[in-house]
């Protein structure tokens, strides 16, 4: 069976994974494999999964197969997902991001004017965390907050027109209901999760297209083909996921982060578990670009900023919580 982000066709419910099969041993093994890219340990994971009662032969056979495995292995990623229930039984699914190091920022010559992305610097995150595979949807927002402020209405579309404080209030209420400490990501966590081990300008390469993301595709950059702009959000998950199973990191909707805005913070950035600057307390950071953004503003390293007391049809958010 091919090792990719999606299982091969023709299999009988290959992603079936009962929660009781995800024992502490299974999850710990899967996290370790993800952190070390130790795919030779996948058969051991299969044995532990089978001992937990798993009878999904498609998944077990794939984990035990001799073919080369990749970081986006569909079976491993399924085990590293967890789903919480919001009020009304509305699900919100998270993917595990292992601890590790990465190069944050960009010195791409075609983006040299964006000084706030430099210098490129190594950042280490010492704790694994779970990140929403999608930006928060309007259905999830309504379940927690009881309303829908969005301009582009659709239950599976990202919520927007949300102020930073309102996004933080969503996190507080969702935390109370689920018992998990849900919060906005730091900028470092966001870029680390977006890149998912990649070093290119986007997590799918150095060139973007309207087949890969929702952005202002009539604008071109770095060899990207001219395409069509939808001038609105799309349903989450419309475009391919990154290697860790996260969708819409580039375009569709910008995503609030914890950090305050400081144009010079990369000059003195903490190398281990950075929380961002405390010097400026006016605006907040958001990442990822949106449906109306030029491709240069949708890159993994691109940084944007807004007044936290203003909502926009271009800004939503994604949530995270620390792994235990």
Topology (SSEs and partners):
Layout: H1 24-36, H2 42-51, H3 57-64, H4 74-79, E1 81-86, E2 90-97, E3 100-104, E4 121-125, E5 129-132, H5 138-145, H6 164-178, H7 187-195, E6 254-260, E7 284-287, E8 303-306, E9 315-317, E10 320-322
Parallel strand pairs: 6-9
Antiparallel strand pairs: 1-2, 2-5, 3-4, 5-10, 6-7, 7-8
What does this molecule look like?
The protein has 324 residues and is an alpha+beta fold. The protein has 2 domains: 61 residues, no CATH class; 240 residues, Alpha-Beta Complex (paralog of FGE (formylglycine-generating enzyme)). 21% of the residues lie in helices and 15% in strands. It has 7 helices and 10 strands. Strands 1-2-5-10 form a 4-stranded antiparallel sheet. Strands 8-7-6-9 form a 4-stranded mixed sheet, with helices on one face. Strand 1 and strand 2 form a beta hairpin. Helix 1 packs antiparallel against helix 2 and helix 2 packs antiparallel against helix 3. The protein is globular and about 55 Å long. The mean pLDDT is 94.
How would you briefly describe this protein structure?
The chain is built from 7 helices and 10 strands. The chain has 324 residues and is an alpha+beta fold.
